[in-house]
Amino acid sequence: MRLVTFTDARGTRLGRLEGERVVDLADAAPELPRDAVALLAAGPLALGRAATASGATLPLAGLRLEAPIPRPGKILAVGLNYRAHAAETGREPPPVPVIFNKQTTAVIGPFDAIHRPRASEALDYEGELGFVIGRRCRHVPRARAAEAIAGWVVVNDVTVRDWQARSPTMTMGKSWDTHGPIGPWFVSADEVGDPHDLGIRTWVDGDLRQDASTKQMITNCWELIAHLSTAFTLLPGTIIATGTPAGVGFVMDPPRCMKPGSTVRIEIDKLGVLENPVIAQP
Predict the structure, then answer these.
(1) Whether domain 75-280 has CATH 3.90.850.10
(2) What share of the chain is helix, strand, coil (3-state, %, to 5)?
(3) Burial class of residue 101 in the structure, from the number of CB atoms within 10 Å of its CB (0-12 exposed, 13-18 middle, 19+ buried)
(4) Model's pTM, two decimal places?
(5) pLDDT by residue (tens digit) across 224-272?
(6) How far is CA 187 from CA 131, 148, 193, 217, in A?
(7) Domain boundaries in the chain?
């Protein structure tokens, strides 16, 4: 299933993507929650109903796609999770995962504008594989970690580099409003299969900057769930971004950060394309 959150003249609600059309779940399954996090929290039966409900469809081209999980309870992210990215920054691969959070107010949809802040010109992109927790869980063993994941999204972990460098926690450089594009839709785990062999590519203004595979991650998705759930409860709708490969702009000589007028496009095999323009902060 490919789950979308969309807006039209009738408001914002959930749909299931079928080719170039969307099944409006508010009509096809009115008993289901209208919010993605509430749908995940309702459990596998609700997700199964969303995947199979039939009804009238709407043309995708006539809808505004929102972030598929517009209001995640948490966004957790992993730093330096690809060896080549660690190397390009001049650092050693970390012995344990480097975890930080992004504020949920950073979330925007797959075609919304990223704001280049007034306070900085050091605006960078980070194409990443993200997964969405589907059930409340704690102390998850690696062998059962896949059971915790409901689906997958493309994430751009937009970063304000100079603000990131000012604080060891990285949160201030990672959490500006509009700096968490997610999308284009939520792809259920059964459609993705093994997440550890997906191509991931990032273009800025048509220039290919990142071209890697998720098999190059240092700490894989199952290990991340085991690690994180040792410390705290994971809740339905939590998004975890798994780190970016080499090719970010700030390490280039000279640095090639994003600026107003840029377009950043991130593509991950089986998941689709996330493409956002960059504008000056209004």
Answers:
(1) yes
(2) 25, 35, 40
(3) middle
(4) 0.98
(5) 999 999 999 999 999 999 999 999 999 999 999 999 999 999 999 999 9
(6) 9, 15, 11, 20
(7) 2-65, 75-280
